[in-house]
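seq as requested:
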Amino acid sequence: MLSFKELTEARSYLQSFCLRYHIPSLLAVQSGISFKLLPLEAKNLDDGELHHPTTTATCLSSMFDCPSRYRTSEFKRAEEIKTKLTEAALRREDWKSEGSASVYCRCRAFPMVIKASAAFDSRIENHIAKILGQLQRQPNRFGIGEADIDSKEEEWYPPNAFHTYWTLDILDLIQSRYNADYLRLSDNPAFDLKRRRDGMLLWARQQLGSQLGLHSGSPPSSVLDSDQLAWALAIFLRFDPTLNVNLENRDFIKQALKCLFSTQTEGTWRHYKPLFHYAEAGNAYCYVFETFTALLQSALQERPEGEMVRELLRTYCQNLMDLWQYAESTKIPLPKGQGIGWCSGHRTNVTQPESWATASVFSYVQALRRLIGIWCREDGLRELNTPRSQFTPEEAEKEIVDRGKTWDTGKSPISEQLLTMFINPVRMHECDDRLEPDSQPIKKNHARSAILFGPPGTSKTTLVRRLADVIGWKYVELHASHFVADGLTQVQKTADKIFKQLSELDHTVVLFDEIDELVRERDMEKDAFGRFLTTSMLPKLAELWEARKVLYFVATNHINYFDSAIIRSHRFDALILVSPPSFQAKIKELNELLPKVYGQGAVPFDLTEAEIQSELKALTANVPGLEGTVDQTERAARQEEWQEGKLLAKFALAKFVLLRWDELSELAYCLAAILKSKSNPNKISADTLREALMKIADSEWRKNKSYADYERDTRSERRDYSMLKVWMIKNSAEDSVSGIESANGIRWLAQAVDSLRDIEITGFEVVPVAPACVELRRSVSK
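struct tokens:
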């Protein structure tokens, strides 16, 4: 089994190979050689000149296996050909290749034809009848083979797993795209699709068991056929409803894979029985890269069964790489550096690149790239993942909104910022393939990182955890201790390892929690270790930012300790203050707590938020002993002395600002004791609250400096204004309105503004109806 380092090296190579060669090679059209990606250009399909439907379908399938970020500008040619493929294919009368194989041509071409079709066509129905006719003519036949119903039965070939796999693919596509037609054909005795499908699956299961027996003998049987084993296994893994995660299936698949890879020699597999015989070209065999593409794609399913298969295949990652090395050793450069191609070797008289063979190899390497990428992701998460209790998206969003009711600093609440900068953009561009390790789920103009700062106990860590739950992403939490886990002498090596693991992740939220020691201001930090940590973090954070695969956050109590270089754009998109709970939230909670400890009805508070804010400003604006002091050294000493001092009683209301949520029970207890000492108290005045606040034990961190830091922090927020904020639109809106997009069935308002107050849409009023949700109401003309 390959190590994490070996896997990442293989992944990096496969990434660069696919990016460099896949689309350019398949789109290369060179005169004078037999290699030609698509037998015809898109314009010729208008005339129905589709001479090679299976080749065209194989090449198109391969190109669409290429993820969007790997597609060149020339990919539009494939899009054009795909849209014209259906009509050209249905107009075609001769469904033979090299004078034979009418069933093969239909089986292999029609999955792409159905994908490209806009509606179910009666001619598709006629072609399905041609494929399934052999089962009608021979009731005891369940699998599909090269058996043309227009020919004599003695000329038919026996059923095989290859033909049966592609026929099942056709039936699945019809059921998913045109279910009404699928049900209609199922009720038609001439088609009887459901029973035919069940019969094919039963036959494939029997073939799989038979091949396991032939492979498992000691010695193995001389008549085994690993091609049929692989295709029967692919049918079981992709189509069979009896496949679920249990020990029996796991052991069965494990044995099947063991048998399959036991026959691998020098990276590849030998030819087994031919599928059929071309009248004009010779025997037709399974092509090893087409076979293993189907097998790997059956493992690339986003369901528990797919995860089980990927885990079992991991044992054979070296075997899969050996098959790729075999492809490397047999590639053929195309003239003029147009790319590379492959020849299947099926025909002794053909040695030049074949388009279908080249397409099959590229489909295999794309599937292998994805599979190895998933293994790299899983290894990275295994090392870094943080066990925690997870919330449902609804529960998590509610907690973000509740905890986002923070002390008013004149900015948008933290909940609004997290929802509009990170949560809604992800929802807006929800990735439909979480198993694609090279996807970029974060768009270029959407934020992907932030530093959350503010006093201790303001739920910075909890907010990031809940953000991951809302969008359904994985979560990783890192502390300074992770970087020094192997000792100070190994810190660079450890940091490289951690960031290498992070670079393999996608659809993940990463929190660097209280890593102040790693990013201390370099001019302030004379210690070489501290300087190293700061310097080493900068390029690594920039790489994470550029990748657009994860959201990452730093939670800190001390934003002023951070290096100015680390907080600039393209490392962090925003510096967001997480204030303590708001005045209204704290008063509401105290009104609920007081009756429990006071034993009587609620006592109203007779003070305002402005009074508390005023006392906080008075505290931080008047440092005693500085008046008239000119000497800078003396001023600095007195300033430091004041910062380390405890809060005076006359400024005690300022403590209410920094009071944590978990301290409100203690405050309620202190207030109850004071109220009980008074006769018939009818309100809680500012003096009463001040007295109770002074009774709360102060931790070491809450000194005068804490209040000064908080005042400074309220002026430290910033963000990159090239990044859009996104609001969900609850009602319908005009498509022509600037800044409005439709995605995932929802309307979104995306603009680079601080808050809704800054949005002006001509003819409309933007009305908030829920956190990060708005309605657009037409303005009433005056």
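The longest helix spans residues 355-384.
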